[in-house]
Amino acid sequence: MNPLMCEAAMNEPHSNALLFEHPYSALVIGASGSIGSAFVEAFQKDPLCQHVQALSRKQGLGFDLSSENAIQDAAGACQAFGPFKVIVDATGVLSVDDKGPEKSLSALDAQHLHKLFQINTIGPALLLKHFSSLLAPGASIYAKLSARVGSISDNQKGGWYGYRASKAALNMVLQTAALELQRKNPELRVVALQPGTVKSKLSEPFVAGLSTLLQPSDSVAGLLNAMKSLASKSGAHFIDYKGQDIPW
Fold first, then answer.
1. Axis crossing angle, helix 123-131 with helix 68-79, rounded to the nearest 10
2. Which of 233, 5, 47 is CA-nearest to residue 139?
3. Phi, psi of 4 (to 5 degrees)
């Protein structure tokens, strides 16, 4: 068995398909993270999901967001198990080398900014480049974890320069790619996802004092329900786990 292939899990009873009304295959990139693994589990529980393909650095396959060759090789390895009706890119980083978000201009550091853009913007753009061809024709979905702080018009507090900017740039990549890919497949939905404040290693250093944190499974359930209701449109969607639109 190809090591990229997730073994099919025993499907648990589920009253409705999560996203589609017919059998489909799903691919989750960044599957070892809290939200990525929750996506994998959710697809495994859907009786109509024939199989889930999971991809992450922890599989020891040389997958590396900073290497286009590694991304291209991973896409080639996954091709045999496609096409996929839904691809979820759950990659992303908030802190780099134990350095968290900057609170002021004086804290900006070129190397730190470069690493944030590499993982949050450039890597995902190259994933789109090489994995979008694995999408099934028709009403398929390419979904990417983004962040509300990537919204330029919603920025009321400032701070978090690198993370905000890398996510805003990511959103532009998604919007631009959606317009291009939809020329060949008007039914394709490209979606930027805001998962909410989720209990995870990524958020742990920044959630002290918050009384309510989403479990990854609850966030993913909301995101899947929101994506199921999305209509085809020109360009990308930007939504949160409650299904609410977020301004770009």
1. 30
2. 233
3. -75, -15
- The pLDDT of residue 200 is 66
Q: Delineate the domains of the chain, giving CATH numbers in brackets.
A: 24-240 (3.40.50.720)
Q: How far is CA 77 from the centre of its chain?
A: 20
Joined tokens for residue 104 = 């002021």
How large is the average pLDDT for residues 211-236?
A: 91
Tokens read off for 231: 């209509």
Query: Do the Cβ atoms of 174 and 237 come closer than 8 Å?
Result: no
Q: Looking at the predicted structure, is the pLDDT value of residue 13 above 50? A: no
With a pLDDT cut of 70, the percent of the chain lying above it is 88
The pTM assigned to this predicted structure is 0.89
By DSSP bridging, strand 189-194 and strand 141-145 are parallel
Place of tokens 């999971």: 54
Q: Is-contact 161 105, C-beta < 8 A? A: yes
DSSP letters of 162-197?
Answer: HHHHHHHHHHHHHHHHHHHHTTT-TT-EEEEEE--S
Do you know the residue count of the chain?
A: 248
Which pair of tokens denotes residue 220?
């993913």
For residue 1, the tally of other CB atoms under 10 A from its CB is 6
Distance CA 206, CA 204 (A): 6
